[in-house]
């Protein structure tokens, strides 16, 4: 079986922003390095949590370049490069390959709804052929957001056509049956399945998941790492209980704004609340409620982050 390129705990990295809503490369890179030092094996960059589709093509390129320039190990990065069109997806993917990323995460083309399986197969095939090799492709299954589901038969066709290139899937449905379906169908062939729901981590690891890629790992990665490393037993069970509580806390308000609020309060750094429309900041009542929910999870305080955040705020 081929070793998983991103095996382990991967956080869906938040993209920091300045007050004018331009990307804040210093804070983003610093948070990335803090995550890698506190439980993460890798980072999903410019996914849903990173607000990829709120940034233009040039901005996305510079965000990824700046992470590398700021000494975030490129081999630990899985950038999201899927867009609504073939040309931009290929351009972003080639750019990631040129920087040295081992793989990329591809959304399906999500503007036209109810595409046929043949249309999706043609799209992914064309993207892979135009990228030209040297890059692993991971599929991003998030129909609640994209409205374009990826089926087991479709993935099977792509695996047959592009062996060793189509390497895995991030399943963000939160449905254990969906993740289990991918694992049972393809894990024996080295296909990497990464659930996006923290509450499923222990269960999915037990049947062959390669790890996870989750938004709440921005907060709970050190507990995710315990589950990944131990798998079972009292220590793993206790850590999984924290993940379950964290998932509930994160889901109690709009996800991205809620995670930003926790980072802002944990660091004392107002800048973490900056968010691009159409996403908006939490109301004061929501902010207080989500902080209280997170305080009850056992995941706070975040080790070393407050001091680090205050030093950034002073720059």
UniProtKB/TrEMBL annotation:
SUPFAM superfamilies in the cross-refs: Aldolase (SSF51569)
One Pfam family matching this protein: DHDPS
GO MF annotations in UniProt: 4-hydroxy-tetrahydrodipicolinate synthase activity
Binding site for pyruvate: 49, 213
Record-linked InterPro entries: Aldolase_TIM, DapA-like
Active site: 140, 170
Record's keyword terms, sorted: Lyase
Domain of life: Bacteria
Family that this chain belongs to: Belongs to the DapA family.
Name under which the protein is recorded: Dihydrodipicolinate synthase family protein
Source organism (scientific name): Muricoccus nepalensis
Lineage, broadest ranks: Bacteria, Pseudomonadati, Pseudomonadota, Alphaproteobacteria, Acetobacterales
